[in-house]
Amino acid sequence: MRLPVTAPARLLMTADAVGGVWTYVLDLAHGLVPHGVQTTIVVLGPEPSPAQLARARAVPGLAVLVTGLPLDWAVTSPRDVEETSHALASLAARLEPDLVQVNSAPLASTGVFRAPLVVACHSCVTTWWRAVKGAREMPPEFRWRAELTARALERADALLAPSASFAVATTEAYGLPQWPRVAHNGRAPLAHVTTEQAPAGYVMTAGRLWDEGKNVAQLDRVAARLGAPIIAAGPLSGPNGAVARFERLCTPGALSPNDVAALLIERPVFVSTSCYEPFGLAVLEAAQAGCALVLSDIPTFRELWNGVAAFVQPDDDDALARTLRGLLGDTAQRLRLGAAARERARRYSIPAMVKATLSAWGFPSAVAPTSGAESAA
Predict the structure, then answer these.
(1) Residue whose C-alpha is closest to residue 152's, from 139, 129, 170, 131
(2) What backbone phi and psi angles, to 5 degrees, belong to 151?
(3) Residue 38 three-state SS
(4) Which of 61, 72, 81, 312 has the fewest Cβ atoms within 10 Å of its own Cβ atom?
(5) Are residues 275 and 357 in the same domain?
(6) Cβ contact 199:266 at 8 Å
(7) Of 338, 337, 370, 340, whose CA–CA distance to 352 is shortest?
(8) pTM (2 decimals)?
(9) DSSP character for 121?
(10) Is residue 278 part of a domain?
């Protein structure tokens, strides 16, 4: 065990430009600047867009290395992942960071990292399969991914999870001797939020629409029963070849953060029907805007939003349609839930995320956060 890190002046982190990890690493890197930490982001998979790179350039001292290395969850061979892990270790040896944090566990499965190694558990195949497919046995292409994940978790000097619920799921899935430390994701509040205008008369969701774990098909099924449009923002195809098609949703595609924010500040009813969600950044952004939340009744959402959102079972179409219709027709209830969600969202700030992360690294200026077990109790 090579932690604690007493002065991590140079941090090396992995990222991809496909989903929420990109947002996470930029927010964390920005929040670490006042603590004297300079970050280098190693990008795997598709190149970041010009808008993504522009946001990265706004982080003082941040370096972005676009490697062209494949995404570990989009390849079809364990050798590809192992070679990527070795390539990352070689890169780290050249750059000599004080700390390495990989944001996808298999990337730490085989490479030998000289610096202390942190694995941030944002998602994994075993927990995804259990939540989305139930108790059915995983196919071979999932089993080798799970084996690489287990190997990485065992080799890490520290493990992080974005919620206590996901720390529990990860511990149970891999039989870990102790829970990952919990550092809830955080976001900066949206600008230009106003509560003077009435909430918009539509429903919205956002995320990787191609991901079966998002369960957007349920929302598509109930759309015809609402009498109001449903905007589903996000990509319909993924780098792993998955493609989603919907008949009744308005799907504008992957929107820029500014375009998403422009919709959220109109305060539509925001819905997430996910059956698998380690945290849910889109829900946090909607809560910051004061949207009334309708969420699937899964452990993560209960942990984060219990008491300030309406909950429905992921497979109960009637309850989902009934809840959405009820909120669309009840402005007072929408305003109450939106205000409560906005107040709860204050807990999930970038400074809070940074403090918990520094504590997990053993950084002396950080105050130890509540343990995963205590948070889930």
Answers:
(1) 170
(2) -65, -45
(3) strand
(4) 61
(5) no
(6) yes
(7) 370
(8) 0.92
(9) -
(10) yes
CA of 226: how far to CAs of 164, 192, 334, in Å? 34, 29, 16
Look at residue 371 in the predicted model and tell me its pLDDT.
39
Q: In the beta sheet, which residues pair with residue 100?
A: 12, 117
- The token pair at 282 is 């889109």
Find all residues with CB under 8 Å of 163, minimum gap 6, and list them: 182, 184, 278, 279, 300, 303, 304
Angle between helices 164-174 and 140-155 (to 10 degrees): 110
**10 compared with 7, residue with greater pLDDT:** 10
258 pLDDT higher than 90: no
CA–CA gap between residue 235 and residue 284 (Å, rounded): 19
Secondary-structure percent of the chain, ordered helix, strand, coil, rounded to 5: 45, 15, 40
Residue 194 domain flag: no
Q: Which domain holds residue 158?
A: 10-186+349-376
**Residue 372: which pLDDT band, with cuts at 50, 70 and 90?**
very low
Determine, yes or no, domain membership for 266: yes
Question: Token pair of 223, please?
Answer: 């759309």
- 3-state SS, residue 314: coil
Q: Are residues 176 and 268 in the same domain?
A: no
Give the number of other Cβ atoms within 10 Å of residue 185's Cβ.
Answer: 23
124 token code pair: 């994994």
What DSSP state is assigned to residue 243?
B
Distance between CA atoms of residues 120 and 165, nearest Å: 14
Contact indicator for 375, 303 with CB cutoff of 8 Å = yes
Report the C-alpha gap between 100 and 115 in whole angstroms: 6
Question: What's residue 138's pLDDT?
Answer: 87
**Integer Cα distance of 180 and 376 in angstroms:** 12
pLDDT class for 330, splitting at 50, 70, 90?
A: very high
Cβ-contact 77, 48 below 8 angstroms:
no
Q: State the amino acid at position 342 in one-letter form.
A: R
DSSP 153-201: HHH-SEEEESSHHHHHHHHHHHT-SSPPEE-----PPPSS--SSSPPPS
Are 249 and 283 contained in the same domain?
yes
Instruction: Give the C-alpha separation, 289 to 283, whole Å.
Output: 10
Same domain assignment for residues 138 and 210: no
The count of C-alpha atoms lying within 13 angstroms of the C-alpha of 280, restricted to the half-sphere facing its C-beta, is: 32
